[in-house]
Amino acid sequence: MGCQDDRINRIVIESRLAQRAFRTVKADRKLEDEKVELAIEKIIESKHPLSDIAKKVVEGTRITRDDAIRLYQSSDLTAIGALGEYARKQRAGKDREKYVYYIHNMHLNPTNICGETCKFCSYANPAEKGKAYMWSVERVLEEAAKGAALGINEIHMVGGLTPAADLKYYETILREIKSKFPHIHMKAMTAVEIEYLAEREKISYEDCLKRLIAAGLQSMPGGGAEIFDESVRQRMAVKKTPAHVWLEIHGIAHKLGLYSNATMLTGISETVENKVDHMLLLREQQDKTGGFQCFIPLKCYYEGTTIKGEVEEPTGFDLLKDVAISRILLDNFPHIKAYWIQLGEKIAQIALSFGADDMDGTIGEEKITHAAGAMTPLQLAKEEMEYLISQAGYTPVERDTIYNIKHVGGAGLKASTAESKKVELAQVK
Ligand code: V47
Ligand code: SF4
C-alpha cells in the first residue's frame, strides 16, 4: 500500500511540474509573441496589409514568391524600406548594425570587343565605331600599376568575348599581376567569360576555373546574370550563358573555394515576377553551395543602345524596392550592394536605409555604365565615399574583397574638398 501511495505522490508531483513547465512555455511563447508584435509595430501598423510579411521578417521566417510579389505590388515604399532595414540589422548583429562597407578598388577592362549582341550593352563597341580596343598584357600591367600606386586592394577585371582574349591571355594577366602586386585581390571573370573560354578550349567549366585559379583568380564578380527568364533574354538578344549554366558555373566556383557575387539587371523589359524568380533561383543556389557574398541590383542605362525608348525605365521607387526586397528575400546572402555608379550617389545613400550595407568601391574608371550614358563620376575618393556613408547616418568601413575589415572610417570629406584628392588621383593616372 505504502508503495502505491509513493507512486501516486510521484505522479501528482510530476504532473504539477509538467503543468508548471507548460505554463512557463506558454508564458515564454506569449512573451515571444508580444516581442514579435512590438517589433512589427515599430516597423508598420498592425492592420497594415503587409503585416503578415512583417511578422515573417521579424520571426526570421523565409518569405515566399507570393510575398515578394506582393511587396513589389505595394506602393508603400516606406514600409518596404523599413522591412529591408530591419532585415539588414538582424543580419549584421548589434555590434555592426550601423556598418556600411566599401572597398578601395579599380575596374580593369582589357578589351571591349565582344561577339555577343546583348541589346542593352553599349560597352561592347563594334570596330567601325572606332572605339574598339584590345590591350596588350603590358598595357594591362601598366593600368594595374597605376591602381597599385594609389593603394587599391582589389582589381575587378572583366572583358568582352573575343577570340584574341583567350584563356592563355587571361592566365598571363592574372599571373603577372599577382606576381607584381601580390597584395591585390583579383576578382575577375564573369560566368559568361568562363563559359566562353571553356567552350573555346574544349575543356570543362571546372578545368577552366582551376587553370584560372592556379594563375591567380581569387573570386568572381556577379555580372552576366541579367534577368534569368528566357523570354526576357530572347527579347534582349542575350544568347550567352542561360540561367542554369550561370548558376552551375558559380556553384562549381564555390565548390573550388571561390567566393562570388550575383547581379540582376533591372530595366530590360522584365516583369516583377521575372525579378522575384531570378532572386529565388539565386537563393536556391546559395542554399546548395553557399559561396555568394553579395547581391547587386543593377539599373540599365540606354544611351547608344537599340532599346532606348522601347523599354520602361525603372523609377526611383523600383530601384529602392529592388534593394529592400532583395534584402528580405535573399535571407542567405550576407550583403546587398548599393552600386553608386548606377543608382547615383543620392539614391545609393537612401538605399542604405532600405537594406543595403555596401557601397561597392572607389572604382578608378568605370566603363560599362558610362558607355551607356551614366552621369555619375568615374571614381570616388575614399574620403568622399566615407562622407556619403556617414552623412546617411552609418559608419563607413573599408573592407577587402572577402569582407575582412581594413579600417573603421570617420566623417570623410565632401565632394568639393575631396576634389583635390581626385586631382591627385588623376595625376598618378
Ligand atoms: O553583366 C551591361 C550590366 C554588368 C549595361 O560583382 C549594364 O561586385 C547598366 O556585373 N546599363 C557588369 N548595366 C557589372 C557588374 C558588377 C558591377 C559592380 C559590382 C559587381 C560585383 C559586378 O553590367 C553586366 C550587365 O548586366 N550592363 N550593359 C547598361 N547599358
Ligand atoms: Fe558582350 Fe557582355 Fe556586352 Fe553582352 S553584355 S555584348 S556579353 S560585353
What are the salient characteristics of this protein?
429 residues; alpha/beta; TIM Barrel; four-stranded mixed β-sheet; four-stranded parallel β-sheet; 16 helices; 11 strands; 50% helix; 12% strand; globular; disordered C terminus; binds ligand V47; binds iron/sulfur cluster
What's the assembly state of these chains? Answer: single chain
Low-confidence stretches: 423-429
According to CATH, the fold-level topology of the largest domain is: TIM Barrel
Distance between the termini: 98 Å
* Number of alpha- plus pi-helical segments: 16
The small molecules bound here are:
ligand V47, iron/sulfur cluster
Looking at the overall shape, the CATH architecture of the largest domain is Alpha-Beta Barrel
List the secondary-structure elements in sequence, H or E: HHHHEEHEHEHHEHHEHEHEHEHHEEH
Instruction: Describe the sheet with the most strands.
Output: 4 strands, mixed
Using the alpha-carbon principal axes, give the shape. Answer: globular
Q: Helical content, roughly?
A: 40-55%
Mean of residue pLDDT values: 90
Write the CATH homologous superfamily of the largest domain.
Aldolase class I
Counting structural domains, the number is 2
CATH top level assignment of the largest domain: Alpha Beta
- Strand order across the biggest sheet? 9-1-10-11
- How much beta, percentage-wise? 5-15%
The Rg value, from CA coordinates, equals: 25 Å
Strand count:
11
